[in-house]
# Entry
Amino acid sequence: MGQRLLEAGERVLLIDPKERRYLISLGTGKQFHSHLGIVEHDQLIGAPEGSRVRTTGGSQLLVLRPTLAEYTLKMKRGAQVIYPKDVGLILVYADIFEGATVVEAGSGSGSLTLALARAVGEHGRVISYELREDHHERAVENVNAWYEGRGRKPTNVELRLGDVFDGIPEEVVDRIVLDMPEPWRAVGPSTEPLAGGGILCCYLPTVPQVVHTVEALRRDGFGFIDTLEGLVRTWNIDGQSVRPDHRMVAHTGFIITARKLAD
# Structure
């Protein structure tokens, strides 16, 4: 199978000599403008991924398809996205497995939704609820754009506009992931469909929210309740200069996981 060339309609990253990234959607006859000059999209359409293109200003830009992490950080946002470092922890500690049925609330900008959908695979299912209509519309746009750029449709993802605090219609689900300000209000009615031994995962930015949520989980009979945060520090490797980078994305949120136990 040969290399798939870049096509009109898909989203790509243009990367300048300082490794600044620009996410664009390729279109016949369109142009990309920056302080480095102009690039014709027609120069990119039909080219192999990893090619370099020269701007009218004489600079070279590298063109690559974005990874999911890069797309997450560059896509249009309604709500604040969950950072890739936290997404990775959620997928592992919530044990999101191939073929699982996962309920998510809320969808936000769709970053976690996309990661969940990739993890459950073709035979799994992600049902994502969002209370705010503007955030729901943004999530739909971002999820569809990611799949359309790969010539596919999001067949294992269902994005719903709705409130989960009064319960959800699903009968049995394997995992529930809550990214919302007051997840303790959902513990009980909305977690009833969670299978025995299933995992509930909550993502929260502040300590008081964590305390309220853990208390609610204990009252509702959940066990093995764990709380963690992930700190990732990148390093600069340049000859003899080997040191941590001066800046890092530090605290972004706490991750709570809990197992549903039998009555």
Observations:
- The first strand starts at residue 11 and ends at 15.
- The mean pLDDT is 95.
